[in-house]
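Lab notebook, bench 4. The sequencing result for the construct came back, and we need a structural model before the next group meeting so we can plan mutations. Quick request posted to the team channel:

Model the 3D structure of this chain.
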Amino acid sequence: MLRRPGSGILPDMPVTRNRIEKNLSRIRENIAAACARRGRDAGGVSIVAVTKSADLESVRNAVDAGLTDLGESRVQQVADRAAELDRMLQRRRTSPPPAVRWHLVGHLQRNKVKAVLGVVTMIHSVDSLRLAEEISVRAAQVGRTVDVLLQVNCSEEPQKFGCAVGAATHLGEMISTLKHLQLAGLMTMAPLVRDPRDARPTFVRLRELFEEMKREKIGGDAFRHLSMGMSDDYPVAVEEGATILRIGTALFAAD
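Done. Here's the predicted structure in token form:
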């Protein structure tokens, strides 16, 4: 078995639906408690189950547990996983398969845009105008509008992707003008820290930036999401306004 710091154990065999339901129940309890501390409605927080460390059967069990928003970090991985899961669900003849929505939560290169558009519902990692323009051009070719989030490097770590905080507002304005994109909000990744509370400044900065951009009416009514918070720090992210949590290990942990 593999251990991830602060996140329990990742098994080397499929995680049962019962285990995932127990993990999900605990996560939702933590979300509800964090919302209560801030006077928020827990219904405004959604979970994207990040499946990169889970086997296909565990992913199917997660879908059966009601988790139909799934996330992957790599283009080829999301394309392969989506096709495999669809085949697995289609083999069932007792009921129609649930509608699964895939999210790309990792870095996207411009030459991979075409491959991902036929698979994902939302791209969380737009961090440049050139990438946004490429997505818009490719989306026009297939006749769709793509929901995207602007990734911001609020922790200012050089190894992380994301635009600079100071550039985010202007970049958001330009992305909002692209016909085949819908700017739905912001995304960030907190630094790896021992104490989840140390991630709070990153989340606070993204929320402040989000509020500034809302006041400027960037993105219009669709601009409403803050994608921040992962397995180790999601309660803190919820306290600071997260609407989308990207959770993997805490869902697929064996205990």
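The chain has one domain: 12-252.
Will bring this to the meeting.
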